[in-house]
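Q: Can someone sanity-check these two? First one:
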Amino acid sequence: MAERVTAKSVLRKISQRHLECQICNDRFVEPKMLECSHSYCLKCLQQLAETNPTSQTLICPVCRSETLLVEKGVFELRNDFKSTLMLDEIEQHETELRNQQENQPPNQEYVSKCSKHTDKDVIMYCDSCKQLICTTCIAKDHSMHPATELSEVLDNCKKKANEIFAEVEQHYNNFKIAMQDIELFHKTLDSMFAATKAKISKKADNEIAKKVAKIREEENKLMLELVQTFKDKSTKGETAKATNDKEMTKAQNVKVVVTQLMDKANFSENLLLIEKVLQDLKEYTKIQPKQVTQEQAYIDFEDDQESFGRLRINAKQKPEGAASAEARMPICKPKTKLTQKLWTLKAEITTYRPKSSKQIKTVCALSVDSYCNSDIVCVIKSNTLIKISADSIGKSKVIPKELSIKGLTDPIRVAVNKNDELIVVGDTAVKIFNRKYKRLHQFALLVGQPFDLPSCIAVDDNSLIAVGYHQIQIDLHRQDGSFFRTLLAPGIGHYLTIHEQHLIYIKTLAKKKLVSIDYDGSVVFSVDISQSWWSRGLCCDKDGSIYVAVWDGESSSGDIHQYSPDGEYIGCITKGCTYPHGITFTPAGDLVVATQESVQIYCHG
């Protein structure tokens, strides 16, 4: 039997078909619209986004279309105003139906009683007092008041209601027009966004094409020059070879002629000719062979930051760009501060996700280094390791996770060699892991008096590992962990770096100094530094410039200062690093600072 159609059943069907979330199967609550025009509750979309926190897109549960999330995620999605208005309208009609049902009179005819004279029926409406009255009321209190019959009052009410309904309908149409305008606004915005995005991409493609064309033009010029140089050098070698072949053949021929003349019976008749030929042969011994040296085969390409580069055709030739580069290089006078604009904060990572808990925690970084692809690995205060992917830097939705490495407990210091092997200092040993975190080697540390736990670690370009013991010495170990050498380093502090086989550290015993020694223990330089600073990090860039993170011991703010490769002070490059604990450079040239509250990444320029 078909269901009886009522206003209530119609409202219920409209709600089920158009106003229910396909995730929670309930009516929309703060509906948000995806790019595919399907709508869902705000809370449901937030829960859906949390199932894959690393993704920047949402997949529609109905049509599987992708929607890109911007900075604020789900909150930035468009509100579904149309569904919201329909919900309000449905709920209003449902309320009216409930009220109507509650106030519906019984089937039998019902006549209202007077509120004052309860045994009397109301028969009129007093226009002055705005109330229903009975015959007693009329006689006693309302005899002089104008009154209207109830049927007429009802007609007037219906008329007034119809007028208001017309106004409401007009107002509702205004809302519909506004919604249409909003829909048109979003379509226009989407169209403008797509068109602008295409223009930016086209401009970028054009600029890239121009640069590629220019580089290819420079390449072709150098290739032509290289081919010509090769031909000239090759011709020189071939000419020398042909000349020497000719002289060698001539000598052999003369020897044959002399031998033949001396063997003949008429030797006496040929004696004068023989002597002349022998004299010519004697002169031949004075001829030097044509020589070409290995240096003359030298051809090389000289890179240049200012241009594409140039050919070098002589190994002893000074690079053509060296003099001009020296002339262009700014002179850095001691104690000349560089402007803070040279380094700007690119990104800051303040939280991480522990492996044993879903609760996000604050990063307190103690030691930091970088892989070849600029991924960052960091020791944090809870004696755990986290990895920050280079691709995730600057993306607010991406939270680094704690690394789970078998056989590694309580890391203290960390370093990465050129083979992307992770070197971790623990309580009793230094352990070396490959990029898949499989342990390759390990070696024991010096423990017990007078040795404390290692205060610092560094690794050079040949994967030689340097372990510093506070105030005492530096031990050098090969890549496989085998011991190589001990170097005395009295006063060595908590930070150590290496550049071109020079060990650089901060001496904290007595007067504070920036010290550099070679692998034989000879002092390269030892310069005084500010005695009011507490050193909180040390590293070198690829050119050998030295960077020292410092703290004044009073405020929470730290600074980073720069020194030349020979230890000459240049100046402060950035301020405002909260309690720094370590610094390093990524291969991409970014400066990474481990602080008590975050990991900060600075870019140059």
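And here is the second, same format, sequence then tokens:
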Amino acid sequence: MRRTSRTPLIIALAAAFAGSAAVAPAMAGWSSGTQASVATQTATDTKAGADAKAGADAKAAAVDPAIARREAVKAARVAVLKISWTSCGADPALAKFQCAAVEAPTDYDKPRGATTTIRMTRLPASNPAARIGTLFTDPGGPGVPGVDFVHKAAVAAWTPEVRAKFDILGFDPRGVGTSDPVTCFPTAAEEAAVIAKMPIFPINAAEFKTYTQGTIRQAIGCLTTSPDRLKHMSSANVARDMDLLRRALGDRKMTYHGLSYGTFLGATYASLFPDNVRALVLDATLVPEAYSGTNPDDPRPGGIRVGQALGGHETYKAFLAECKKVGADRCSLAELGDPETVTENLLTRLKTKPAELPGPDGALIKMTYADTVALMFDKLYSPLFFSDLADTLVALETATKAPAAARDSKAAAPPMLIDWDRRKEEYASVGNSAHACVEGRTPSRPQDYLKLSKQADRENPHFGAYRTWVDYLCSFIPVKDADAFRGPWENSVKAPVVVIGTRYDPGTPYQATRPFADLFPDPRLITVEGFGHGSITVSECADAKVTDYLVNLKAPADNTVCEQHVKPFTPRTAADKASAGTVRALGAGRWGS
């Protein structure tokens, strides 16, 4: 795509942040519920159901219909696309998938203007004769590619009945993955070199300066390398792309399963195209107002607004309590004493001296305090990782107490730590996660972030400091998508919408689930009693209810409760290992969601 001049954008960046005492040096450096059964409802239940429907209809009718009318007019101006499906390459693992690419309007106000490439894949329904339609999916982020997710996880993530009757569709949202991605340097190596000099998050003034220098270099890189892509990558435009694909695929209405950030995308679609919804499953929710920063009375950084500091801290405490409960026979961390005391002492030592452990090739793997907090946050995303996380903390504890012995030991670093070290070297541009920058509000001033992180850390130790910095890059990207949707978020979807929240979720805390659900006229909330980010593959109960909803349009009762069948600190079965692969395929965007 055509690149625009970088000069006005650099001037805008400098003007936006001139005079900041914290930023100026950096610029210089740059130079268990049950399924409701209609057949067995009592007369009272029937009346309650009728009352609920009447309430939902009244709530839907109260929503301003002008938004949906405007979007319908925009959509009608774009011709129905033709999709040509081909193979996804020579890899035998992809033989059962089909791939395609289409050109969508870059700006839906200019339907015959510039275009943006949207790449997608599908796993065709295994029973074509019983096919219902297409199940659209989004794995979250923002910034996680949907094509790769479906290739790696579709078979494990959805039940055989869903896969029999739906084509499972994954697409890379505009600006992400292979869909005209927002990149921030000419090459991955150049951006990786900048990231390598930055701490994962800063904990003191010196680190703050280094972190800010690197962040500004990233921002200038994004603004100079991909300005044309940045200003059209809002979730609203992604939702418009989804509706365009729905029409091209011949689906009369949208069936969608969104995870994490994908719930925000689902809420956006519901607001813009409420009459086009067949079924929505929204698992691990982000309250739109918090994510987009549209509440003028809440000036906190984005990661704090959405509750990731609270969610991380609560899940961490639950992990430690569960370890103590099962004891040393099942949790190695308990062999060293009280798990919380051991881990807190370890984290205190890491603040002043990193741990070093030998990798399989003999090179030392260095883990700082910030590295360890980030690792913990990442691995709290699933109970499938709890045992390995405990083993890793034990290895770090040993290394910090006897560093020479650890270096001389023939034992390699634990697998989780080796994987973490490798993943830090893999690269996907931070620009892929810039949706929040161009569609939301970043009310906090750059120079205030270190102070805000310390305040957040007092409230939610370790994770407050870490998650403060999620949207720091946005402070230096003065670009907004004029076609972004910023509310109102109450919508007029008439179909029941399934919303799922897990009791201990670090990325999207459970407390956000009911407020999110109440944006819909007829929400059906499922609470999963357990641990982790999202319910896919770890709750057979939730999977069954999602299947019945997607296939038969039988929505569960609101306030249904499900248990997890995957328990922490238990030996993994072959199915559990496949589930762990699905969780890893979800990845994490800059927001870790």
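A (reply): Looked at the second one. Confidence is low (pLDDT under 50) at residues 1-48, 423-427. The CA atoms of residues 3 and 228 lie 7 Å apart.
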